[in-house]
Amino acid sequence: MTNHDFSVRRAAAWAGGSVAALMAAIYLGSRGFKDLDPSNLGYLAGTLVFVWGSTYRLAVFLIKPATRMFLRGALTRKRSAGATPGAGSKAPRGRSRWGPGARAVGANLLGQAFIWRRQPSRWLGHMAISWGCLLSGLVTFPLVFGWVHFRLVDGSSYDIMVFGQATHRFVIRSLEGWMLFHALDFTAAMLVLGLGLYYWRRLTQPQNQPEQRSEWDLLPLHLLLGVAVSGLMLTVDSAWLDGAGYSYITVLHQALVVVTLAYLPWSKLFHLLFRPLAAAVQTYHEQGRLSPQICPGCGRAYAPAAQIGDLTRVLGDLDVRQPYLDRSQAASLLDLCPDCKRVQQARLFVGSAVSQEVR
């Protein structure tokens, strides 16, 4: 069995285990499936497919040697950065032991500042789509799993049941009730806003269009728009059309949601789950800048020394050998900055007469 086959089987096993764990949690949280709504079984099936595919893709990525080394290095450096310099000493006032990680999560993950720097309209669209999806999931998944449901108390109020226990009572015809019942309308409106901005960019800014096939670039947008619009149609139909087409729209909406959930792990939208790793990337590099790698060829700092060390170990684990140079200069090409590396590679192929002006 090759390493690739072994990795695929491990990832598939993890994916199967995640589905089994989710089913166990649903069984316990819904009191033996008693609180499951039969009308949500289609959503549940789509969610299980989504969980299997997402776990499989994450597992394939995380079991790669380079990824393991990177995550281990990021976590180790975060702990070492938070360690105090001496017994009983405290971190300087105004500085958090989780400073780099907290900044990375706040700026890049929650605020998505890196997109604002590219274009504000793109940032607004991305924020609307990402938070629309995340908030929709926070509302719908507990309902689909039977962890949360509403119990009619009398003709005018509901109890919010969480894991079979009444936690809060609200009046149906109140602002609170209206906000709760229309929560998914708000998130759908966020999606429509964000998707509209992205469609507008693709129509008016052809120079910024991604160079991808339509099924990779536009299909995710079409599916999200279909889910959002069909969800809003349910509210419109029940509020102003007396439910004339409610049953048909329900089937359409559920079908679109199931297809989207099944497709999401294999689409560009999957970066929603990968994006938290960006916080680890920023932490890794911020901590690495405290100890830069010095190029033995030109004496310049060009990368975190820990990153070069991690890269050397990963290539060694993969049995990828680097050309060795003169021991008086460097152990391998990995020890050189990109400019000196190009010079040394040229010398390896055409001889030592290559001038430093090649840089």
Descriptive overview:
The chain is mostly helical and 359 residues long. The protein has two domains: 259 residues, Fumarate Reductase Cytochrome B subunit; 67 residues, no CATH class. 63% of the residues lie in helices and 7% in strands. The chain has 14 helices and five strands. The strands form two sheets. It has a three-stranded antiparallel β-sheet. The chain has a two-stranded antiparallel ribbon with strand order 4-5. Helix 2 runs parallel beside helix 10 and helix 4 packs across helix 12. The longest helix has 27 residues. The protein is elongated, with a radius of gyration of 27 Å. About 4% of the residues have low confidence.
Chart the SSEs and their pairings.
Blueprint: H1 3-29, H2 41-62, H3 65-82, H4 99-110, H5 113-116, H6 120-145, E1 148-152, E2 157-162, E3 165-171, H7 175-181, H8 183-204, H9 214-240, H10 246-263, H11 271-274, H12 277-288, E4 292-294, E5 301-304, H13 305-317, H14 338-350
Helix pairs in contact: 1-2, 2-10, 3-12, 3-13, 4-12, 6-8, 8-9, 9-10
Keyphrases for this structure?
359 residues, mainly alpha, Fumarate Reductase Cytochrome B subunit, 2 domains, three-stranded antiparallel beta sheet, 5 strands
Widest sheet: strand order? 1-2-3
What fold name goes in the CATH topology slot of the largest domain? Fumarate Reductase Cytochrome B subunit
- The count of DSSP E runs of length 2 or more, i.e. the number of strands, is 5
Largest sheet: 3 strands, antiparallel
How many domains, as an integer?
2
Radius of gyration: 27 Å
Mean pLDDT: 81
Number of helices: 14
Oligomer: single chain
* Helix share bin: 55-70%
Class per helix and strand makeup: mainly alpha
Query: How large a portion of the residues is in β-strands, by DSSP E?
Result: 5-15%
**C-alpha end-to-end distance:** 45 Å
Q: What is the H/E order?
A: HHHHHHEEEHHHHHHEEHH
Shape annotation: elongated
Which stretches are low in confidence, meaning pLDDT under 50 for 5 or more residues running?
83-97
Q: CATH class of the largest domain, anyone?
A: Mainly Alpha
CATH architecture assignment name of the largest domain: Up-down Bundle
